[in-house]
Amino acid sequence: MERPEVVLENADTVYDFYRDHQQNLWKARAAYWLLGRRYRPRVTYADGAREKLRELISQRRPLLIAVNHLSQLDPYTVAAAAWRSALRPVIGRTRVLAKDELFIETALRERIDMMGGIPVFRGKDHGMRAVNAAGQRMIDICAERMARGDGVAVFPEGTCNDVDPTQVQTIGTGIGHIAFRAKKLGAEPVLVSLGLSYGPRLDPAVEPTKEEARSASFHFGVPVAALPTKPAEITRVVRDELQVALDGAVKAY
Fold first, then answer.
1. How far apart are CA 30 and CA 223, in angstroms?
2. Which end of the chain is least crowded, N or C, by CB within 10 Å?
3. What is the CATH number of the domain that holds 139?
4. How confident is the model over 186-209, as pLDDT tens digits?
């Protein structure tokens, strides 16, 4: 199937494509390796988190990876952290939710596709009513992929935090629905909270430069292997666990 144009009016065809899209594994690993060398993030873990994460990955449990969102550079620094962490074995088996505008320019789309991207049509860009059907389809596609063994990485705040980089902002309910629907399909998703800090920011509204984004601090919380049964309850767990991970990233910076 040819890659469709990523526009809201074409959402059904877009999600038909990304339901089965698989990037080239070797190119993906090479790209993540290169980003790891370029950004050199520092990675720390809560007590027992690394061992638990490795155990769950060895069991082929699908990971639902939640990361706080600070900058347009986050997809690249997160990829760098994945290479330099216990997540390395799931590179190529993890879908990454990314805003639809990143799929417009050809060269950028090729990079996002190579990283396992799935487009998200955001209400803040198109209007909540306009994106409702596409959003439901996106959640279904993520749940299907998790049921087939893929992980899904999400910035659940939905937009960059320009208020306070030490505090998780409002979490969208989408991540809870992804886990809920994956469970209904027989998957056993594991929540992995990954806190990100670029250090103290004099003005949170000013994003870090590429140079300032180097040596970012990432901190893994203890994976949650048994999630609640309701989407709202899952979302609350994500909010609490992600704040703990962010506190760890800030402390370790």
1. 27
2. N
3. 3.40.1130.10
4. 999 999 999 999 999 989 999 999
